[in-house]
Amino acid sequence: MSIPLGGRGALAPDAAAWRLKRGISYVSSPDLYGGVYYMVKDGGIVTSLEPKTGCVLKQARVERAPCQYFAGLVAADGKIFVASEQGKAAVVKAARQRTVLAVNDLEDETYATPAISGGRMFVRTRGKLFCFAARE
């Protein structure tokens, strides 16, 4: 759903600029990156939307990661990162017609949203903390 900024009190039913009823994430937080709104839902289905209109740009399953998703997705360096409950971490090229670049198995349950800082990505699983960085 998209609502205008600056509203106060109860919004009228027609205040939403758009609504999406299918393909939405249940728990995982979405991300707005590079002018595109991204979200992941159970089954590993990543949806990208035009933020002004709510028009679906692409909706596709992340191959090798058809799992449940509780962690929010994050974005940096032209990529979207998603981690499933089953520990499948996918790297997706951030573009209107995106492609899956990699899927890695962290071999542990993942519920926490990854954090990005100082050129590094931190991913906490049930029993481990991973730090990923680009090769120099």
Low-confidence stretches: none
In N-to-C order, the SSE pattern is EEEEEEEEEEE
Assembly type: single chain
What is the CATH C-level name of one domain? Mainly Beta
How many β strands by DSSP? 11
Radius of gyration: 16 Å
Strands of the widest sheet, in order across it, are 1-2-3-4
Structure description:
By secondary structure, the chain is mainly β. The protein has a domain at about 15-105: Lipocalin (Beta Barrel), CATH 2.40.128. It has strands spanning about 30-35, 35-40, 45-50, 55-60, 75, 80-85, 90-95, 100-105, 115, 120-125, 130-135. The strands form 3 sheets. It has a 4-stranded antiparallel beta sheet, with no helix packed on it. Strands 5-6-7-8 form a 4-stranded antiparallel beta sheet, with no helix packed on it. The protein has a 3-stranded antiparallel beta sheet with strand order 9-10-11, with no helix packed on it. A hairpin with a 2-residue loop joins strand 5 and strand 6 (about 80-85). The radius of gyration is 16 Å and the shape is elongated.
SSE diagram, text form:
Elements lengths: L30 E3 L2 E6 L3 E5 L6 E6 L12 E3 L2 E5 L4 E6 L6 E6 L9 E3 L2 E5 L4 E5 L3
Antiparallel strand pairs: 1-2, 2-3, 3-4, 5-6, 6-7, 7-8, 9-10, 10-11
Which features characterize this protein?
mainly beta, Lipocalin, 136 residues, single chain, 0% helix
What's a concise summary of this model?
With 136 residues, the protein is mostly beta strands. Helix content is 0%, strand content 39%.
